[in-house]
Structure formats: structure tokens, C-alpha cells
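C-alpha cells please, single chain.
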Amino acid sequence: MKKFPTLTFLVLISIGSSCEVFAENITSLTLQDTIPITDPKTTNEPSSITGSIKDAEGNPLSGATVQIKGTQTGAISDDSGNYSIDTPENSEGVVLVFSFLGFQSKEVEIGNRSTIDITLISDDQELDEVVVIGYGSTRKADLTGSVAQVNTEEINAFPTSNVLQALNGRAPGVQVIQNNGAPGGGVSVRIRGANSIQGDNDPLYVIDGFPFSGNPTNLNNSDIASIEILKDASATAIYGSRGANGVVLITTKSGRGAGTVVEFDAAYSMQSLRDKLNLMNGTQYAELMNIQAENDGLQPYFSEAEINGLGQGTDWQDEVFQQAPIKNTSLSISGGGENTQFLVGGSIYQQDGIIKGSDYDRYSIRSTINHKVSEKISVDFNSTLSKLVTARRDSEGGSRGASMIGAAIVASPLSDPYNSEGTINNLADDFAFVSPDLINPLYFINEQSTVITANVVLANAAINYNPIPEITIRIAGGVENRDDRTDNYRSSNFINSNGNASITTSQYISRLSENTITYADVFNEKHDLNVLAGFTYQDFTTKYLAGSGAGFLSDLYETDNLGAAETPGIPTSGYANSVLLSYLGRINYGFADKYLFTASFRADGSSRYSEGNKWGYFPSGALAWKVSEENFMQGQETVSTLKLRASWGLTGSQAIDPYATLNRLFPGYTVFGDELYNFLAPGSTLPGNLKWETTQQFDLGMDLGLFNDRIIVGADYYIKTTEDLLSTVRLPSSYGYTTTIDNVGSIENRGVELSLFAQMFSKEFRWSIDGNISLNRNKVICLNDGQPILTNFINVITVADNFSIMEEGRPLGQFWGYQEDGYTESGAIRYRDLNGDGEITEEDKTYIGNPNPDYFYGFNSNMTFKDFQLDLFFQGSKGNDIMNVSAISSTMDYGQGLNMPEEVLLDHWTPQNTGAKYPKISRSTVARVSNRFVEDGSYLRLKNVMLAYNFPLKNTNGIFLQSLRIYASGQNLLTFTDYSWWDPEVNSKGGDNRLGIDHFSYPIPKSYTVGLNATF
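Here you go.
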């Protein structure tokens, strides 16, 4: 199964090639079975049938299913396409069923044969593949909306702790941003840009029909059969108030009716820091400290003789970072017969972090069963049980070395990690000029811990009833339950600590009931009608409990006994509940397999909104024309597929907390006289009469296949506008409240998505390429009273200010600050006086950067020769800026004894170097949020390279070991970028409107992987 890639790489096809080259490789899809009759049976003795299964071009089909019809007896073809299956004593009337994904199934009666070679007719055309859509599925050829698909091979191309990381660069219009490189670290996904200020901008994830909360971290990559990404409103409107940010449909693997099949996957990876920062060594550090002392009129800190004898000193990056393994193992057993199919499996994913002491473990058990009770009734069941354990050592942010990652950068190379007696060295005591804020990073690693444990249960079941073949009544129910516990402990050995412990537990449960009826029929061989109607109910309940304590006589208990604390903290707890009731309907109509029409409607009622505004209504419509099926397109061999699409629709976003529209009371304490009293009082936020955020989207698309679909091009243009944006608004003090939430404005996203697939060669040497490119332009249309909103406040001592702005007519989240204009005669930074009043004030701030990329892209090359396979996958982004907050205190905070990049020493202002990159080294240096800290975050990355070998296993005849594949791969091995810090793929603040921020983030590692896949 292949994706639509991008026109950007069409040039790769044309170089050294022509249409004639492709024509030579085009093979007719008109196929016939080859069933040689050899060694006819003359007795009814037990025997077996052997043979091979191949495609039209003679290539073996590995993993094809052979089953005796009406039984559970089956076999799987090996890597050479060979199979062997035991047959009954009397084979008269026995039929074998041959099937393979993407090919038409074939039934063959055994008769007297002992060898049956089969050639399957291929559904080789991309657009004939089946894709999952909301509450159903359809052929890709019959899609009227914009849907991207990522298949299991792409999902499992390399090990990831979060399956969403596997989507990066795989689908047009889908931007995957890894917030940091920590094991189990968060991932932000944007489909066609951000829509909301107040609400979440991540898409809705639906796992086997269940709308899941948050990221699907409970799934292992090997569990997944395919991922469909619904992008335009005609595809997402069926999910109503949760479809504005797009919908990601995840389909997990299920059993096959081919006897019992065991699949085993194992991989081992070794990670390391991709590239170290070029920091000053001991000698350079001493030189810079002396320069600062001289510029500030102080005596030198080090003599010339001392400097000459210092050497390299401590490399704190070596003290903090390490090589770290990833172990990923999964085992599944599946099988069944005509009426029952099952799968049970388990997986273990264990990742150590490249920062010492950090890790992430996931243990999962899955089971599925599909059973046909009768000709009219069938039942389905899916369940996933997962346990997630994360040890955090990703202390980020801060300044002057007050966080672990920050300290690893600015710690003095002249300081030792440990004292002579083996205790952790207090860096602030080594030199008088060192800031007292600077903490040895080993304290964070050895004397502080954060462990997050989560148990996640996702289970759903359904009963399907077909009173007549054309009608399906489906009654489904499911539950998602998540229990989280976070244990934080700082030992008494941590600097200035007497032992601090805290525990936070939470329980989230969501219950779902879905009831649908579907009618599907074809009339007069021309009218294809599919009608869906139904209603759903889902509730969401969250509870939490937190406790803490300080002052422990011993570190033995850690968080296991808060009662041992000298000073117990005040326990807190909370509860929240909301309900969503929905009615939905959809009509799909096709005429003569040429003209397609889709209309859907959903009404959502949410308990979160005010009386009179609780219901939102979300219609959509789409048209598609298969131009290639018209009579005037027949008889030519160039255009094999051409489909034009147009769609329009409304989707929504709830975007507020469950009780945001209610006037709530909050507890507190106060003192009257000598007594402490508790009280209830209104909060600081005035409840508002709120309406739904509504997103309107218009989409034009084209699907084009050339030369019998050897080349497939996809293109989409969209305009997406979100109205009634919800945002926090400040109020005058006379109101008695400080803020309120209100519907304040609108945001527009418009863009172009291009994709391309090309089968370059398809004989013994097979080579296919695919890629995609996406361009999105985001703009704030209007805000409350037209007033801009300043966001992203930072305080790193040397700078305390907002550095982002939302303003009408400008992109969302644009960076806001001062522009530098060289240096003064004394070496201080000069800022531009934009309003010409002779002073540098807030009025001189302007736009200094944009975190939104001009475009982002992915490119994949897949080559196979005989039993070898080589894959190359590139991914990148262009035109996005990064606010390097890390560089503020790490390059501008002089006089505090902080280590810095080597270039600060080599290229700072002096009377002889007035055009330097850095100002005069002096503690009197003043820094502001400026374009100095905005860097180009564009990059091109070799995301994955893999070399695999498929063992032919010709002598096994598919018995016991049916297939075996070994591979070696590398991830993030090459990155081309001008960004100066660890990695350009960074987003410290997570999702929403705070993109493009790097504030001492956990670096993304590079890794090498070896693995195997085996089928028994």
C-alpha cells in the first residue's frame, strides 16, 4: 500500500528517463491462473498440496494466505512465495482459497492435483485500496474527501515510543512536532495548521472506532495495521465538535482465517547525542572570566601561569549524556476459520534516555476476536491493556544553571563533578564569581526523581445484525480508563533540601455508546447508495488526589510514606465530568462509477456550554468526478486515473473546561484574630455565555494516475476559517474579576498539499519513490476589539518579557521583540528606535520571526533486488524560525561564572572587533528579547535508512518458519541545518500557540538499530 507523494520530486523521475522507459515496465493486469497438473492421485491417501503464489510479473507473494474453504486449516506463503498445506484423505470437492492484501482472492478446486501454482490478479491501482473513514470504510477510488493513509510498513520503519512520530513526513498536510527527545516525550500534531487560541490544536484520535483522549501512547507500532488521516471537512464533519483539528483513525491488527500464525518482531537500538555543543574548555573559560573582570574594572580571576596549566577541564556534556539502548519486542498469535478469527499479542518497549537516569517502559497486551454467530449476527471485541512507566530527568527551562539541562551547558569546566570524599560538588562554592543559582547537574540526576506510572485500558465491543444483506445494524460500546500516578522526590542530599516528596494520582474514565444503522445497495448496476444514521453518547470523568510533605529524617521512604514528613502538605483533590450526546447521518451516492456525492450531518450537545448554546450543528458536502471513466478518456494509455474533488463543511471545537460557563466557588483560608478559617469564594475568572468554536473549510482536490497508475499525483487546495474563537480576556478592575473567557475573533488557514508516487522499476529490481510537500499560511482575521494579545512570557533574569504576539492580519504566534542595530561605542547592544522618539520603549517592538514553516516535506525511496531491500526516508521543514531562549543566559549573562559556547570568546566586541557577533563581555551588558535570539529552524534530515534481507527459506516449504527478515537501520544520522543549538526539531512549550521555542530542551538522539521479523 503506497501513499500519494509530492510533485516536488517529479524531477527525480524525469532525470535520465522518459515515458518510453516507464512504458517498457508497464505490465498488463490481465492475468490467468497457472494450474499445472502433475502426479495425479490414484488413491485417497493423505497428502499435501504444495506450490507457489506470484503476482502478474512473476514476483513471489510473501505472506499470502492459503485456506481450505469452510475450515480453519490454512497456511502462509514464505518469502519465496512457496506454500504447503495438508489436505484431507478425500480431496474431491475440496476448494483452496488464495488471498493477499491488494489482490483479488481466488478459489481453486484441488481435484487430483498435488501441486498448484497460482497467479493472483492484482488490485495494483492505488485508488482501488480500501481506506477507513468515520463510521465505515470505502475504496480510495470512491473518496470524495481529502484522506491520507500511512500503512504498517511505514509505521514500523523505525522504533518510536509514540506511534505519532512515525507519521512525520509521511502524509501531506500533517506536521508532526516532537516536543523534545526525552523517552516517552510529548508529540504535537498539526493538520492544516492551528485553529484555536484557547483550545487544543491536536487532532482527534480514534482507535478501532473509539474516540481516544490525548496521544495514543498505549499502542505499540507493531499493533497497528493502518492509519488514516481525515483532513477536509467532508471527511471530519461526521465527528462534529471534535473534528476541527482533523481526525486520525488508527486501525489495529486483527486475526486472519488461515490457521494459526505466530509473528515475532524484535529490535535493538543504541542511541547517542547527535552533536555536542561546542562549549569552552577550561583554558578558554578562564580567559573569558579574566576578560569580563578587566572590562568591569576588577582584578583578574586567574594568573597567566594558572591559565597555561588548566587544560581541557570537565566536559559536563559527557557527565550528563550517555549512550542508551532501546529494546522493542512483540509477539502475536492469530488465526481462526471462516466464522471466527482471533488475535492475542503482547509487546515490551524499553527505552533508556541519553540523559542518565531517564527511561520509558511500555508493556502491552492486546486481544481481538471476530465471530460470526449466524448468517445475520456477528460480534467483535477489541481490548488493549498497557502499563507505562516513565523516569524523568528532563529538567528544562530555567536560567543560570537552575535546571539540569541548563546546568550541563553553563557549569564551569574548571569544577569537578564530585568532591574528594565522593559527594556531589557544589559548583557555586568553587569560585567567588560563580552565581549561587548554579546547581551541579548531577544533583538532578542522582538526588532527584520523577516517576510517572500509568495503567491504560481501552476496550470496545460491538454486535452487528443484518436483517437483510443490504442493512447493517451496529450496537457498539467501549470504555477508556487511565490511572496515573506521579511520584516526585528530592532527597536530603540535594543542595538546600531537607527532603521533599509529593504524589499526584488521577483517574480518567470515558464510556462510549454508539448505535448506527447502514443501508448499502447497488441499483441497476449504476446507482451505488450507502446511507448511515445513528446516535452516540460519551461521558468523561476525571478525578485527582495530591499529597506532599517536607522534612524527612531519612531518604529511605522517598514517596512511600508521606506521613514521615516533618511538615505535611495540605492534600488536594478534584473532580470534573462532562457529557457529549450526538446524532449523525451520512449519504454516499455514486452514479455509473463516475459521479460521486457525499453529504453528512452531525448535531452535538455538550454539557460544557451555556443554556441555549449547548448544541452545535455540523453539516458537510462533497462532489467527485472520475474523469478517467468518461468515454472521451477511453482508448488512450497515458491517463489511467483522473478524479476531481470539491468539498465544504463545518466542524467544531469545545475548547473550554467542563465548568467554564458556571459561576464556581473555590476554597481558601483566612485568619480572623488568632483563628484560621476556611472559606468559599468566587474565582478570578468571570463565567461567560459562550458559543461553539466553528471551523468552516473548503477544499479542491485532484487525484491523477499515469501509465496504468505507475505514477500517481495528488493535489489539494484548502481554505479553513475558524469563527467565534474562545480566548481569555482581561477585565477592568471594577468588574471584581481579572479575566473572562469570551468568543473573540477568527483565524484563517489556507494552503496547498502535493504528493507523488512513482514506480520506477518493477521487475527483478523494483524501485519506487514517494514524497509530499505541504504549504500552509496562517493568519489572525480578528480579535476582541482589535487588540493584540501578547503571549509566551519568559523570565531568565537577564530578560523578563513576552516574546510572542497574536495580532490581526498576522500569523499566529509570531515572535515579537526589538531589532538590534549594531553596538554603541562602548560595546553595548544598540536597538532600533522605530518610532523615532529618542528612547527604546515597548513602542519600538516589532515582528522579529515566525515559527510557522513556509513548507514541510517528506521523501521516501524503496528499492528491492532479489531478497535485499534498501529504504531511504528524508524529512524536513523550511522557513520556520526558532526562538532560542537557551542562548539568552548561555551567551549574554556575563559576570556569573557561566560557561558559554566557544564563539563567545572568539567573536565578542572589542575596540578592534566592533562588528562582532557578541557584545562587550561585561556584567553591565543589557539584553532584551530581540532578533538576536531568533534563528532559522529549517532542516533536512535523513530520518531513516534501512537495509534488510529476506531469507528465501526455499527448503522449508512454509512449514514451521514461514518467513524471516533481518535488518539494520539508522535514525537521524544526517541533519542539514543552520540552527546553532542541539537540534532544530524542537518545541519546548508543547502544542497550541507556543511553537518554535527552545528553552534547554532534551535533545533528540541519533540511533542505530538491528532487528528481525519472523512468521511461524
